[in-house]
Amino acid sequence: MKKKKQFIYLFSITFSMLMLAFFIGGCDNRKTNQRPMKKKEVHTEQLNKLKIDENQFDRVVGWLNNETIIYIKQHDKEYQVYKFQLVSGESNLLFKNKNPIKNVMISPDHKKLLVQTALHTNLAKLFLLDSNGKTLFTKEIKSFDLTYEWNDLNPQRLAISVFFEDWTFKVYTLDVNTFKFTKESFSDPFVKWFGKDTIIYQQRDNNDIQLNAPLQKASISDPYQQNDLLDSVYYFDTFRQYLMAIKIPSENNNKAEYQFFDLSMKKKYSFQVPHLSQFNDWLIPYYDFLIKDTKFISFVPYNSEAIDEYQKDFKLISYHLINKNKKTLFEHLNNEPISCRQNGDLCLYGFQFEKMIDMNQNKIIPIVEFNKEKTRKSS
Questions:
Q1: pTM of this structure
Q2: Nearest CA to 338 among 330, 329, 348?
Q3: Is 276 exposed, middle or buried (0-12, 13-18, 19+ CB in 10 A)?
Q4: Which residue, of 1, 13, 60, 138, has the greatest Cβ tally within 10 A?
Q5: CATH architecture group of domain 122-232
Q6: Which helix (H) or strand (E) holds 273?
């Protein structure tokens, strides 16, 4: 009888534990099978405006992440770089210097900033910062002007072109990990990255006054090993694994043809648009590339003519490289710089990026609000 009671007691305990395990497992499975909640979209109504004195504001630089922008201001005889959180409205100082800040560049992985200050006309100083403002590397460079190209596929590499007053130049690469600064041997200063180790540029003769030039590539590890990519290109740019080349068709010079290639130089998409002539060349309207959506967006004139005779606004059009379709996003806008966040739904717009385009709600709002100056009452 005693053994029977023990058996019933053990059976009850075991059964209860099994049922509890089954219940917990079932709950875990239900949790696992649930679809993850989509992150709520942030619209312009939810964004705080950057409130600042007009005489202190220099410009917005760009996106640090989907909710944070970088801007430059001048205050108390100092030049300062801040990050501004659009949702919370909080500003945080990242960098300050007594010398004017000429440029700030955000790395493709949004983890670093390159800041250029001007010590004087022929001397620049570079500061490499992390996203919290910690200085990682500094270097003074004798120069009249500088241009930079950060490698989208390898954010540890940076190309820097140094120009002197007589417009001679030198091209360097910077390894962001080791801070190694290396002089390169390229025949043109306007270089772009196209791959983790490859630089592309136009091959121009010193006395060449032609608008078009061949496009060539060279490896950083072996810059003397050069290969032709395209015969004749007016303008080019790269976006991670894509190359954009603009040509003027010989059979119709009233149009500009945009061609897009992947890393293997397979053409992915092309289209033609009207273009505007200026002096002895053509205007390239402002544009951006949405990597996540594989979309190229650009301002496009309504017709072709000389730029000083063109009295119309521009259309903002998106071109999908995969679906090979286009969509007019806005009509009658000014041709001004544009930079979209990774989600592609909000874009900074304007010569100081002082405006915001909301693609979902088809509207444009100011993102910078200048503080009203207190006026003294006249006695």
A1: 0.85
A2: 348
A3: buried
A4: 60
A5: 6 Propeller (2.120)
A6: strand 267-274
Contact indicator for 9, 2 with CB cutoff of 8 Å? no
Structure tokens belonging to residue 196 = 């983790």
Dihedral angle at the C-alpha atoms of 258, 262, 263, 266, nearest 10 degrees?
A: -90
**What tokens were used for 292?**
């996540």
Q: Of 73, 52, 70, 49, give the one whose Cα is nearest residue 61.
A: 70
Q: For residue 268, report the phi and psi dihedrals to the nearest 5 degrees.
A: -100, -30
Do 220 and 207 contact (CB within 8 A), yes or no?
A: no
pLDDT score of 267 more than 90? yes
Long-range contacts of 359-367 (CB under 8 A, 24+ apart): 359/329, 360/41, 360/43, 361/43, 361/44, 362/329, 362/330, 363/44, 364/330, 364/333, 365/44, 366/49, 367/47, 367/49, 367/50, 367/60, 367/69, 367/86
What is each CA distance from 170 to 144, 155, 161, 189, in whole angstroms?
Answer: 12, 21, 6, 7
